[in-house]
Amino acid sequence: MTNVFKEKIADLIQKETVVDFPAIKSLLPSRSRISLVRDLQSLNCLSSYNHSGGYYTLPSIPVFDTIGIWRHRDAYFSRYGTLKETSKQMVDRSLAGMTHEELQQTLDVRVQNTLRDLVMNGLIGRDRIQGCYLYVNIEPQAREQQIGKRMGMVANDIALELNPYHIIEVLRAVIDNPGQSAFAIFGVLSQKHVKVSLDVVSKIFETYGLCKKNSP
To answer: 83-154 adopts what CATH topology?
Structure first.
């Protein structure tokens, strides 16, 4: 009988692409939660890294992008599985480490507690670069390479010549969108077709003391 249940769940997911647990329970109301969870596991279903893993899909469905993320409506999936494992992989594989804001921008979910847990459990490292926390690989050689790359990026950023037009546009966007990070303001300016790089926006934030202090 278990095969019948699994087939019904698989057919539902194939039809809907992504489903939540209530939808599965509605399909098989007489089946216990534990049994349904086992059915999902036996199908090797992937769970979303957002919404507390509350959405499911079949492993054959996602088409992951170059960094291993697939989004379907408001359900986000990772080839690495959970938010914690995905965050670790993103940090480990990054060329120059990742800041809290960079990872949050990449995954489009809150990662503050996840990063804190990873650091406390010794799964990733953390260094302070130019007043901001940088999350890095725990392996010494990889960590050294990431920090060296980031320091080079910081040096290039310092060398940027700020255009008065860019300064005005960034400050205007900050006034219209108070409390937003450099990444968010960069997005606002991009939507307005203001041609300015993220490096420049970040440099203006740093120069004018606009850095959002929300890193863990």
So the answer is: Arc Repressor Mutant, subunit A (1.10.10)
